[in-house]
Amino acid sequence: MSYVEDPAPGHGSLPPRAAFVSDAPALSLNGTWRFRLSPAVAAAPAGVERDDFDDSAWDELPVPSMWQLHGHGRPAYTNVQYPFPVDPPHVPSGNPTGDHRLRFDLPADWPAGPAVLRFDGIDSCGRIWLNGTELGVTKGSRLPSEFEVGPLLRPHGNVLVVRVHQWSAASYLEDQDMWWLSGIFRSVTLLARPDGGIGDYWVRADYDHTTGQGTVRVETGPDVVLDLPELGVTAHPAGVPLTLPVEPWSAESPRLYEGTLSTAAERVPVRIGFRTVSIEDGQLKVNGRPLLLRGVNRHEHDPHTGRAVSRETMLADVLLMKRHNVNAVRTSHYPPDPAFLELCDEYGLWVIDECDLETHGFGPLEWAGNPSSEPMWLEAYLDRIRRTVERDKNRPSVILWSLGNESHTGENLARMAEWVRHRDPTRPVHYEGDHECSYVDIHSRMYATHEDVERIGRREDDNSRRRDLPFIQCEYGHAMGNGPGGLLEYRELFERYPNCQGGFIWEWIDHGLADGGHFAYGGDFGETIHDGNFVIDGLVFPDRTPSPGLVEYAKIIEPVRIAADASGIRVSNHYDFVDTAHLKFGWVLEEEGIAVVQGVLDVPAVQSGQSTVVPLPSLPSTAGESWLTVSASLASATPWAPAGHVVGWGQLPVSAAPEAAPLPPRGPVFRTGGKLLLGAGEFDPLTGTLTTLGGHPVEGPRLDVWRATTDNDRGEFAGRPEADQWREAGLHRLQHRVITVDADGEELVVRTRVAPPAQPFGLFADYTWTAFADRLRLRLEVTPDGSWPCTLPRLGLTMAVPGTLGSAEWFGGGPGEAYPDSRQSVRIGRFSSSVDALQTPYVFPQENGNRTAVRWARLTAPDGTGLHIAGEPQFDFTARRWTAADLEAARHTDDLVPGELVHLTLDVAHHGLGSASCGPGVLPQYRLLPQKTAFTLWFRPLPADAD
Ligand code: IPT
């Protein structure tokens, strides 16, 4: 059997060991290599391994890279399904094969003797030669392989050849939900290995929270000594346990002690974090304290380079996470570049380090033939977990080992768990697919509903083993498109039940690939089978701009919560370890969103899990609606954010809007020149619709219930998709029947019945217009008629105004978008934005940009003319240069072309977002059911600016 289709692990490599650098010479072989892609193994050129092979006609390719992103072949995306016939261990004979060649010289001072060639990641299978000698074969795309090469090296003209196959038997074990991309996508390094050096080491650094003592013991070679200058440790025999008082490591306070391990021949810098992971009383604890995991699932992704990610990109992820209150990462679904874990140690993130394993494509086949229970794959499974654990064992941030993802269950997984327990008893084992929890230490679920979490929290599980374990959601809150909704209710459950220890949002980043003017997803590269935009489900856009979902999550999981009422300001510390001494508290009183007075708040340090109440500052009285905002921010800069970075905030309404002034007399309705005139408005006498307002031509406002469906509206995980029900009901094509236009006296009353074609149900919509000086009041009464089969996407008005009204200002919720079940992150204030910037550029266009709890909004042209819209008391709005139908029809952001008009939605209610694209639907309290509703808006034309 060819090595390509051999289910066994690769061969020829050295036993796995920790990832580390030392003072021994190292030579990076990253850079420009020669490259040639062949469409099949059989079509690949013969003799590439020979020194004298002529590659001068080949292309150049950067290493590390993924060749499909450099013009060779094309990316392809599938989630669960294998893109090739399921015929293990066979793969297509049309197996793209990339030959990579590098000629390199050794530095002049390169020492003679042993040397190791290290590959940090080759996707999916590589055969390697150095100077004509075959070194072996790698499999396990996201795992390192090292080869002994010392005797083969020469000072000049070394020829390194790597033949990489896109598909191999190992592809059956690497069916993660991501792009199929190939190549040498992580670093290649040559490492001199001095005789008498440090081959491998394992720093075990425990912390005893009852004594405040740390114990360090290093498993390594015999003559290694440990130096930890900060702790006064000098030349301590590394293997001899040493106990001394230390500051512990935690994600909140990532204390690392710098030191060295050395022998006469080699010196290895180490950074040691003291911490102890345990499971006690059904809780996952570190240093004796239960954790609440406020996590994300992170894939490695860059919109230009795919899974070849730079250190800057890794750091960008870590900083963004820390700044958004994220405290944990699951490395879904493979060990990341080792540098990422060093950043987690340094900046402080709890990590579930997941093995490179997923066989999800057997799921649709009812798991028949699943590798997890086939003996021929056992060695590959064990090889993968060994390489994971050995590589990352020194990372204090890693607190759990995960066997992999979505590989069902089976003996091979149980054997992996057994191996881990034996090798590293200090970290519990995670694997979601072991539903009975027979070989894992944590009860883990994906996308469990709130109800299920509640049941688990109440320990009503009938499986007693599972019932007594800590519970986490390794995936929840599917962040596809606009959403997720319902995170607040998850948080409440996690906080109510001590065994529910949080979870990891699916997922961190949209895997969109930069392609012309937009980000591409599945199907955009002509794939035969693909899963469309299911790969666009992150909290940050492909370019790492935070999406509203991340802003919302940051607010939900804020480590300090501030709530105020008339009796004072309550500050609650939701950190798991630290007190609030590193924070400063400030307040500001705003009247209609304009700061009136501000100050600092003296808050004594609050311990983890505790809260305190401090008195309200004395506040001047204000004439308009005013709010007190209190925020907690970093008192001084941290490595991940500047001083002043806000970690939590709360708001208190201080004074309500004043009673409205007595209204001026009502203006009359009159008819002239085929028009109905009322105050600043002109109306069509036949339909009763507004046509001009203060001289601006307008369309509408008319009753509307449609929104461009979101991924969650279309989601299939919570029963029949809401979007299907709406469409079947015909809510996207309502017809408006005018019953009466009553224009006598001081009111224009337009009675209509609004209903979809072919359906017996509908909504009566009565519009009552009244003019008061320059203002028009619209009272809308909506009464359902007949029996409605479904919820409504939204309820309100649609209206179009001239495109010159391109600036918005409002007093209400902001600055970002909000929906009923995703609105914790908006505060009441005054905000402004261009109409263009009100749009959230979801990679797959859909409903977005709704501003909520708006008291008033102004839309203006550059000269100041425009429209002032006020709610009685509030409304929601969107403003876009396209219609909801355009938004619904668009497939990529650049399909949306600005038109002549600005289209407004002015709403009284919205259906929630939920998470049905992969999870529960909209919770009952956020479902919008047709019911009798009244809603009042005021319209006032704005004159040109005074100057
Ligand atoms: C779950 C997968 O683990 C994850 O990789 C991703 O595909 C996610 O779904 C959806 O985006 S598995 C699913 C069957 C719940």
From TrEMBL:
Domain Beta galactosidase small chain/ stretches: 676-940
tRNA processing found in the keyword field:
no
* Keywords, ordered alphabetically: Glycosidase, Hydrolase
State whether keyword Cell cycle applies.
no
A Pfam match? LacZ_4
Q: Which reaction does it catalyse?
A: Hydrolysis of terminal non-reducing beta-D-galactose residues in beta-D-galactosides
The Gene Ontology terms for molecular function here are:
hydrolase activity
Q: What is its EC number?
A: 3.2.1.23
Spell out the family assignment given in the record's similarity comment: Belongs to the glycosyl hydrolase 2 family.
Protein name per its UniProtKB record: Beta-galactosidase
Q: Which organism is it from?
A: Amycolatopsis melonis
The organism's taxonomic lineage, starting at the top: Bacteria, Bacillati, Actinomycetota, Actinomycetes, Pseudonocardiales
